[in-house]
Amino acid sequence: MTYETLELENHGAVRRILLAREGQRxxxxxxxxxxxxxxFAQAAQDSSVNVVVLGGKGAHFSAGHDLKxxxxxxxxxxxxxxxxxxxxRYFDYCLRIWDFPKPTIAQVQGACVAGGFMVANMCDMxxxxxxxxxxxxxxxxxGAAATEVLIHPWVMxxxxxxxxxxxxxxxxxxxxxxxxxxNHVVSDAELSAHTLALAQQVAKAPPFGLQLIxxxxxxTLDAQGLRTALSAHFDTHQLSHLSEGFLAARDRGLxxxxxxxx
Length: 262
Known about the structure:
The chain has helices at residues 30-45, 67-74, 79-98, 115-120, 138-141, 152-156, 158-167, 173-178, 191-203, 207-223, 226-240, 244-252, 256-260; strands spanning 6-11, 14-19, 51-56, 104-108, 111-113, 125-129, 133-135, 171-172, 184-186. The protein is α/β, with parallel strands linked by helices. It has a single domain, classed as 2-enoyl-CoA Hydratase, Chain A, domain 1 (Alpha-Beta Complex), CATH 3.90.226.10. The strands form two sheets. Strands 1-2-3-4-6-9 form a six-stranded mixed sheet, sandwiched between helices. A three-stranded mixed sheet has the order 5-7-8.
């Protein structure tokens, strides 16, 4: 596949996948999500790739799902249509990153919001720049039950997840570091080089050993109920699309939520 919304870089055994809709703050439209899923599938099959870095071009990692496209193409979806669309492109695609057989590192600057937060936190490690902030405001802006994949309590703890989701407020890079959601915070100028150096250090290990380590660590969370909890929330999230709050947001125009979270 030739990618129009992504840029790929190879640095030895490290492949960097960059979201490349800079003019839209790397908002994730359908094309980007399909291309991203394909790019990860190709990296999984490429024996020359030991580690994948996921980043975004420009000032922001990702402002989340493309709400302008959602308003234009999916605002009047039936329950069945929305379930099928979001089950595939939001839930399944995210879990494929979580289950990706090689180590992954999110490289985050600027906005990491809602769908962007969801995708970044599918990665095994997160490196953030000082400009990075994390939020999931959709309970306030869209009346929805958070994002489709409720990874929040697993990466930041239940108390902080409740604060983020109940208030709709942002978490700074330094706060994310303090609570253990990110591994490193560096200057914006250092972000690319620092993340690549970390990835190359990881890539020195024998790849099959890394695969087994990741598998065991993910299974530890599965044993605690992660996968069951994520699946249960997806069902709940679908119900929220029928709520008065969401329907009112839809009628006002989903894209107006972008300005609310600017």
